[in-house]
Amino acid sequence: MAKPKRRSDQAECGVGLALAGGGPAGAIYELGALRALEEAVEDLDLNNLCVYVGVSAGAFIASNIANHLTTTQMCRAVLKYEPGDNPFAPETFLTPAMGEWLRRGASVPRLIVESLWKYARNPRDLSLLESLMHLSRALPVGLFDNEPVAEYMERILAYPGRSNDFRQLDTKLIVVAADLDSGQPVRFGEPGFDDVPISLAVQASTALPGLYPPVEIGGRHYVDGVLLKTMHASVALDAGAGLLFCMNPIVPVDTAQAVSEGAMKRGKLINRGLPTVLSQALRTIIRSRLGAGFDGYQEKYPEADVFLFEPPADDYRMFFTNIFAFSSRVMICDHAYRAMRRQMLERRDELAPALEKHGFRLRVESLEDSDRSIWDGVGWLEDRSPNAVLKRLGDVLERLEDEVEQRAS
């Protein structure tokens, strides 16, 4: 077993990072915002902090950064349309759970017999419909398979200089999940839970009930840590972070101006169907809980400087964009970068003094360049492969689909 590397001076100064969830779109948004943060804060090295805390999609990003993948590397992975070193493919997160469906489907005949037998034994106590509710056990516990998430992380962390073992990192990484059977938070990466592979911990932390099946680890089942807290920023503060950067891409959208700005054809979210309604409801609950939690940090951690960054409620690009279109992934990454730069510039009177206290400087002069794109620092990968043709064709088809929808409305 290799010896852990010695932490640098910056790690000892107590700078931490806490990332919330948000699915593939949230992960890309956090990535663009982190790139902006690292550029704007002089001497800040996001790969060399003292503690990283990740929940759900935030666990995916935090685990990569703790393993010394730079924001430049990850942003360039978003650009890659063809396979390569760590290409970011959102479809990895939404692979149909065919095995789960088949297993549950195979149990239907047995459950029908048990339901009818139960009704026959208690016809006066149960109606036939009540007895047939036993069939609900045949419903899959997750629509999508999260095994590809763990496999993807394994491939990323298998490169030289990276590790899938919490104990081999030169910094503190904590991935938060929830124990399904007890309802208690579990901090993978802390003593007692640091022998779990990072990839498996990320799989557990991203297992949102209904979308993904619970993940079994050591005979227990774990689900998305967002069920308990949105970000678990207090975990980083308890670990001694004196300066903590927090990011939450999950905010409810305010559609007051959505129609006039062209983001919606009608002014009601209900017109977009059940997925949009559920998304808005989940975002509202999560954001409300996050606000309540942050209100108590100042009193509990008076010496710490905690900064929360998140999209505004009228960020329609973030809410309505199809993250599976390649051009949309590129756009969201740059959009998050620009939005983060604007937010830091607007909050410079708050940020600059706190950063100076911890030995950093806010590059206000850089933030004032409103034309700067994320690709100015990351670089654009020109794709001359045959897949570039497919990408352009996909973009054309996407625009055609939008045009058809507009004409139909």
Structural topology:
Blueprint: H1 9-12, E1 15-19, H2 23-40, E2 41-42, E3 51-55, H3 57-66, H4 71-79, E4 95-96, H5 98-106, H6 108-121, H7 128-132, E5 144-145, H8 147-157, E6 172-179, E7 185-188, H9 198-205, E8 215-217, E9 220-224, H10 233-238, E10 243-247, H11 274-295, H12 297-300, E11 305-309, H13 316-320, H14 326-346, H15 348-357, E12 361-362, H16 364-367, H17 374-378, H18 386-408
Parallel strand pairs: 1-3, 1-10, 3-6, 10-11
Antiparallel strand pairs: 2-12, 4-5, 6-7, 6-9, 8-9
Fold and architecture overview:
There is one protein chain. The protein is of the alpha/beta class and 409 residues long. Helix content is 46%, strand content 12%. The chain is built from 18 helices and twelve strands. It has helices spanning 9-12, 23-40, 57-66, 71-79, 98-106, 108-121, 128-132, 147-157, 198-205, 233-238, 274-295, 297-300, 316-320, 326-346, 348-357, 364-367, 374-378, 386-408; strands at 15-19, 41-42, 51-55, 95-96, 144-145, 172-179, 185-188, 215-217, 220-224, 243-247, 305-309, 361-362. The strands form three sheets. Strands 1, 3, 6, 7, 8, 9, 10 and 11 form an eight-stranded mixed beta sheet that branches. A two-stranded antiparallel sheet has the order 2-12. Strand 6 and strand 7 (185-188) form a beta hairpin. Helix 2 (23-40) crosses helix 14 and helix 8 (147-157) runs antiparallel to helix 9 (198-205). The longest helix is centred in the C-terminal third of the chain and has 23 residues, at 386-408. It is globular, with a radius of gyration of 23 Å.
